[in-house]
Structure formats: structure tokens, C-alpha cells
Amino acid sequence: MLSLLGGKFQHCDGITRRTFLTAGALGFGGLTLANLLRAEAAAGIGSSNKAIINLHLDGGPPQMDMIDLKPLAPSEIRGEFLPISTKVPGFEISELLPKLASVADKFAFIRSLVGSAGAHNGFQSQSGFASKDLRSIGGRPAMGSVIAKLRGSSADIAPSFVDLMQGRPLVRNSARPGFLGPSYSPFRPDISKMFARPLETGMKKELAALGADHSVSLTLNASLNFDRLRNRTQLLAGLDQIRREVDASGMMDAMDSFTQQATSILTSGRFADAMDLSQEDPRMLERYTPSLDKIEDRFATAESPLSARKLLLARRLIEVGVRCVSISIGDFDTHSKNFPRLRQVSPTIDQGLYALVTDLDERGMLDDVTIVAWGEFGRTPRINKKGGRDHWPRVGPAFLAGGGMRVGQVIGATDRHAAAAVSRPVQYKEVMATLYHNLGIDALETTLVDQRGRPQYLIDEGQPLPELV
Fold it and tell me: In sequence order, what are the residues at sequence separation of 6 or more whose Cβ sits closer than 8 angstroms to the Cβ of residue 269?
């Protein structure tokens, strides 16, 4: 039995999934799961298998301690870590990333990511835009919500967009549908029982203020057969017809699509299986698990090294039809104890990205799946009095792999202190345009109609990175 999304997935001997499946707490008036599901669109971009795995390095990754080391800088800037060689000639990265170094030829490394809005959340990495853009009509939609709108079908067995982000990006609702409305919100499972992510005290209060529906709650059990589930869904549609016709918010249309999505997910079971890591080969689980010596003085918000398995979970979801999976791995907000904290979190990133890229490559999926790992900004070149690095929106790092891109290269460069881009500055929107391109979507020519009836381009400036596509 797997505890998932606030409930239990139970596999009953002798009972097929299609025969006995239900959403928890079904009442006479409707389908509770349907009321909570946050995606109208399900997987499958036509006949394509192309997908995005978007890894948010929560807190702001320090560029000079990961992929842009400055060994000749003064000690108060260069820090404690030594550079090591990689599979890309002449390119060095942190000694804490040896596995990534061994497959650097499968990555493109951006050392000159600029244009950060300075917001301490994951929204810009989800959309390419600052939160304030089009705020009066709900804001810009996250990329996954756009994919759900353009490519989705609520009859499929998996949602197009699954948000597995924890910590700050969850609390601040970074993966949101913006002006597209609630029909295109992500399917947001509660994975807290699978992956512990401690929150700062202030964030606990923020999350509580969002209410109980911030994550999806889903329960499968053997108390209701498929015909009765279908009949109740049809009854709900009939009872809600009048309300749909007079509803101006779009919520009733969203509820209809949630109902359809709920039925599709429940009557398949493949999504539930994908979320159950106990069904994975133990050797694969081990592959996604960093080997770390016992770490003393683990920081309060540090994730377990097992958080690398979030990337395995993403691969499993892509395999059953999800087209955009957003993940976060945290503890990069290193205002204090920067170096001890990086000794904890860097091996997790190292193992997770190495395992994901080699796993996808072996399965013949790497050209179809684009991986991007980045944060909301970089960190200050100068180490502060607490041994930490503070927020630095001027420049930051990004990693990309897969998607049929031209990898094995480094894009951009910074000055001698990793403080500013001195060649090939790369904007967030350029990276987003590249991700859309890899899905076969021209972001500069494709529009969505906002709530005022006006067309909005997916990306309003910036081309896909010519170095990669």
C-alpha cells in the first residue's frame, strides 16, 4: 500500500483496477477528487513523446561554487571548493560534482543567466516572466499550464502538467495557470510523506494560509464499481448544467474537466503505479541514491539525499504520459554556512542529474525529454560574516540536457569574481523559448487568449538559443 496525495492507493488481490476504483469521500452531490484535480489536459502531445523535466534549485544556486569556479580570486570570493576537469575540454566544475563532470558532454552549461526578477520563488523558472507581468488579469501562466491548454485532453490517463515542487515554490504557488484560469492548474500531489522537506517557520504560516486545497488529495479503494462511478459523474454533469451556463469565473468548466480527468486517472491506475516507487527495480532506486558519509550539523531546511529520487519519479511520470514535470530540490538559500550546506546538497544534485541523464539515454528517451535545472538567481561573490552567500540577481547558472539539443558546451562567461556576465548573457525567456522549441511549439508565434479576449504570445521577446537548437 502506498501513501500518496494525502490518501492510500490500495491494490486488492483479485480485483481489477477498472472494476473497482473510486475517489475518496464520494458524496451524492459529486466527485470529491474531481473538485480537487488541477488539470484539464492530459498527456500526449499529438503522437509525440516530447516532454520537459524542470528542476528548480530552490533558494538560488551559487554559480561560483558549482559550474563557474574562480580559483584565482581572493579567498573571500573563491570559497573552499576546488575545480575538477570534465568531459568538455577546458571546462571545470566543483569537486562536489564528479558524476556530473563525467557526463558533461551530455549537458549544456549556462554561466551567464541574467534578467532575474529577484523574486524568491520559482515562478520565473516556470514561465520566463516576472510575477508582476499581467498581474491584473491573473498573471502569466506556467509553461506546464500552457502545454495543458495547447496539447491536453481530459480523457487521457495522466495529466499533462504535474507539479512536484516542495518548499518555497510550493508555498508561493510558483506553478500557477495565470490568466488561463483554474482549468489549467497543475496536478499537484502531496509528496511530503515520500520526501521530507522542512519549511522555515514563516513559510509554514504562508502554506497554512493557502488552505487545504493547495495540494491534490486522491484515494483509491474497492468500495465503488466503475459503472456507479460513471453514473455519478453523469449525474453531476446534469445537476451542474445551469450553474455552468451562468458561471463567469470559469470554475464550473474547470470542475467539469476535473471530473473527466478524475475518471480517466482512476479507471487506468497507470498514474498511481508511476507514483509508487516501491514498484521500481531496487537497482534503479540505488542508482538515484547518493552515497554520503554521515553529515553532522544538517541544516534545518536541508532535504534528505533521497530527494534525488524525485528525478526518478519524474522519469516514471513521463513514461505514462505526463508532458511537464516540475520538481524542486532545496537548501540553496545559503545566507549562512554556505560551504557545509553545499557539501550536503551538491552530491544530491550530482547523483540525481547523472542518474536521470544516463537512465533516459539508455531507454532511448533522452532526445525526447528536455531537462533544465536552474534557480531564481545566483549568490553573492563575496562571502558574508556568517560564512554564507546572499541573493545575487545579476547572474546565475543553468544546466540543460536532452531534447535533441547540441550539448557538450558552455555558454557565456562571467568576470573574475563571477559577479556579472561579460559574454553571451542569456535571458530566462530565451531558455523558455528553447524549451517550447524542443516540444515543437513556436513560442514567438503562438498566442493564448487572455481573460479580456486579447491574444498573448507565449514569449514576447527572445529566440530559442541558437547554440542549442
Answer: 17, 18, 21, 220
H-type helices in 377-424, by residue range? Answer: none
**Cell triple for residue 360?**
533516459
pLDDT given for residue 245 in this prediction: 52
pLDDT of residue 300: 81
Please name which of 383, 318, 379 lies closest in space to residue 345, comparing C-alpha atoms: 379
pTM check: above 0.70: yes
**What's the sign of the alpha-carbon dihedral 190, 196, 202, 205?**
positive
What's the maximum distance between 2 C-alpha atoms anywhere in the chain?
Answer: 71
**Can you spell out the DSSP letters for 133-182?**
TTGGGT-PPPHHHHHHHHH--TTSSSBSEEE---SHHHHTT-S--GGG-G
Alpha-carbon distance of 425 to 412, in angstroms, equals 6
Q: How does DSSP classify residue 388? A: -
303, three cell numbers: 532535504
What's the CA gap between 331 and 344, in Å, rounded? 9
Cell numbers 547523472 label which residue?
A: 354
329 close to 166: Cβ distance less than 8 angstroms: no
What are the distances in angstroms from CA 255 to CA 38, 275, 397, 453?
9, 24, 40, 22
Beta strand pairing call for 409-411 and 51-57: unpaired
User: What does the alpha-carbon distance between residue 144 and residue 151 come to, in Å, rounded to a whole number?
Assistant: 10
Fold (CATH) for 48-218+275-457: Alkaline Phosphatase, subunit A (3.40.720)
The pLDDT assigned to 299 comes to 83
pLDDT number for residue 27: 31
Q: Whose CA is closest to 376, among 359, 393, 361? A: 393
Secondary structure letter of residue 59 according to DSSP: T
pLDDT tens column, 388-399: 999 999 999 999
**Once rounded to an integer, what is the mean pLDDT over residues 103-132?**
97
Question: Dihedral sign, CA of 248, 251, 256, 260?
Answer: positive
Using one digit for the tens of pLDDT, what is the confidence trace for 197-242? 988 888 888 888 877 667 754 444 445 454 554 555 555 555 555 4
User: How many whole angstroms separate alpha carbon 98 and alpha carbon 309?
Assistant: 18
Determine the Cα angle at 130 with ends 127 and 134, to 5°: 90
Mean pLDDT for 458-462 is: 96
The rounded distance, in Å, linking the Cα atoms of 94 and 82 is 6
User: Which is nearest to 384 in space by CA: 115, 62, 116?
Assistant: 62
Q: Residue 325 corresponds to which amino acid?
A: V
Q: At what angle do helices 226-239 and 251-266 cross, to 10 degrees?
A: 170
Q: How far is CA 248 from CA 32, 35, 183, 325, in A?
A: 22, 18, 13, 30
pLDDT for 288? 98
